[in-house]
Specification:
37% of the residues lie in helices and 14% in strands. It is of the alpha/beta class.
């Protein structure tokens, strides 16, 4: 019998393979995860809500074949424990959305994505921490407090899928779910040296949201490496009648595509890559620029041409702020009327910004987004991928709400410093953050790789090849490390 320490070091694919062969059981993995969680949670606060007994009950039903499942095949997780972000309902499990308003909320019904993952053999073991209603690039809230970066516990893990990223980096779970609006899957991945994918809108169901016809916010996978992430994406994808934008699952699994690339399929290698240090939009710290520039050049080792180029993003930053504010009105205006004193200032500001918008401003933003999409489609007729930093700074002081200045440029709100990811959101293209290296203080830095519209397979193939060259995934999992905030 393998020890808990050995089991938590397995990749998700290795664990699923051993489950399939009967070498281990879901209960073995639940016990290993519970032991690891008990060891590291006091240091990092990544998984504040556990549902260990629910997981064990689920595992026993699965092992007895009493649980309705889609056995085997694409995306089959075979009883692997997973974490679900605390924005997403799990039946019978405390789900707070990071808000004091919902501090004691226990939903009776799971989100459609959770239902799908459970049908595909995933076992929910915990809820991961998030900023209030997922708003912000630092994971903290009034219900559970702050989540700390395990590479240096004086620093932020990013947000809003920060708890998910930390749980992966420390080996508490093998796979973790997240969401992304302005960079919430990509920035925490960059800050914690894990992998986070923002899929194309419609690739994964959003199920119950009130903004069902918006392409801005998505659900998606996080993992310690790209093949594991591809497996998790396969477990998530597929059409859902409750979400009008969802797409059918692709005929070829994402994991099959990734494994073919790693096995040497030369057709999977990108041929022409555009590199941009800042998308022509945002200040980026010099160390992030340097690490990511060197990372981008590694694609030449695959035979790709790497050129400095990017689409014309126009005034997409302002358009994103307007469209985001509209979404906040849909989601938060009713709460603001009843619970203003319980909602953090950033959300109040964003919602009130939306309430002040004029029809002309909204119409301009939609035209700007449509024009950008047309330019991006044209751009990808020349380039296979667009590569840029996944965050404009390394992880920063965990006590700060957000970084308010980079390279002398001052930001006047919490979302302005995420333009390098939010601009990509507005393209509707899939984008992944992959570990790229570390700065001189040992802080993780991620490379954002952007694929063609609905081009997840080719994007994941390129990301897997890049990861294989760096070998950074082999550094995980890690034990939480004390540290201090570096002087810049």
């Amino acid at each position: 019998m393998s020890s808990a320490a050995e089991l938590i070091r397995l990749t998700a694919r290795e664990a699923v393979a051993r489950l399939g062969k009967g070498e281990i059981t879901p209960l073995d993995l639940i016990d290993a995860a519970a032991e690891r969680i008990a060891a590291v949670e006091p240091a990092v606060n990544a998984l504040p809500t556990l549902c260990i007994e629910r997981a064990r009950d689920h595992a026993k039903r699965l092992m007895a074949r009493e649980q309705p499942v889609q056995m085997g095949g694409t995306g089959w997780l075979a009883g692997l424990p997973i974490a679900i972000k605390d924005l997403t309902d799990v039946a019978g499990v405390r789900t707070t959305y990071g808000s004091p308003i919902y501090a004691d909320h226990v939903p009776e019904v799971s989100h459609p994505l959770v239902e799908r993952l459970e049908r595909n053999g995933g076992i929910v073991i915990a809820k991961s921490n998030t900023p209030e209603f997922g708003a912000g690039g630092n994971t903290f809230n009034e219900v559970f407090g702050r989540t700390l970066n395990p590479w240096n516990m004086a620093l932020t893990c990013g947000g809003s899928s920060g708890g998910a990223a930390v749980a992966l980096a420390t080996g508490e779970v093998w796979l973790a779910h997240g969401t992304d609006h302005g960079g919430s899957l990509r920035k925490p991945a960059a800050f914690c040296s894990v992998v986070g994918l923002r899929p194309s809108p419609g690739r994964v169901t959003r199920g119950t949201v009130n903004t069902l016809f918006s392409a801005s916010s998505v659900q998606g996978p996080m993992a310690r490496n790209v093949p594991d992430l591809a497996l998790f994406l396969d477990a998530m994808v597929g059409q859902d009648p409750r979400d009008p934008l969802t797409l059918p699952a692709p005929e070829r699994s994402h994991l099959d595509a990734v494994l073919a690339a790693l096995a040497g399929d030369r057709a999977a290698r990108p041929k022409r890559i555009a590199w941009s240090p800042d998308l022509g939009l945002s200040p980026v710290s010099s160390e992030v620029r340097g690490v990511c520039a060197r990372g981008a050049q590694r694609f030449t080792e695959l035979g790709a041409a790497v050129e400095e180029a990017c689409p014309d993003f126009g005034e997409i930053g302002e358009a994103f702020q307007i469209i985001r504010a509209m979404i906040f009105v849909v989601d938060r205006a009713p709460l603001l009327e009843k619970y203003r004193d319980k909602i953090k200032p950033d959300i109040v500001w964003n919602t009130e910004k939306g309430l002040k918008l004029t029809p002309a401003e909204i119409a301009w933003a939609e035209r700007e987004r449509a024009a950008l999409y047309r330019r991006v489609v044209s751009f990808f007729e020349t380039y296979d991928l667009l590569v840029c930093p996944a965050a404009i700074t390394p992880p920063f002081d965990v006590t700060l709400r957000y970084v308010d200045k980079v390279d002398g440029r001052k930001f006047d709100n919490y979302i302005a410093g995420s333009l390098i990811t939010s601009a990509i959101t507005m393209t509707a293209c899939p984008a992944i953050s992959v570990p790229c290296g570390f700065d001189r203080h040992g802080r993780p830095i991620g490379l954002q790789i952007v694929g063609r519209p609905r081009g997840e397979a080719a994007l994941l193939q390129a990301a897997a090849l890049f990861e294989a060259m760096t070998g950074l995934d082999r550094l995980l999992p890690i034990d939480p490390r004390p540290g201090t905030v570096p002087e810049e």
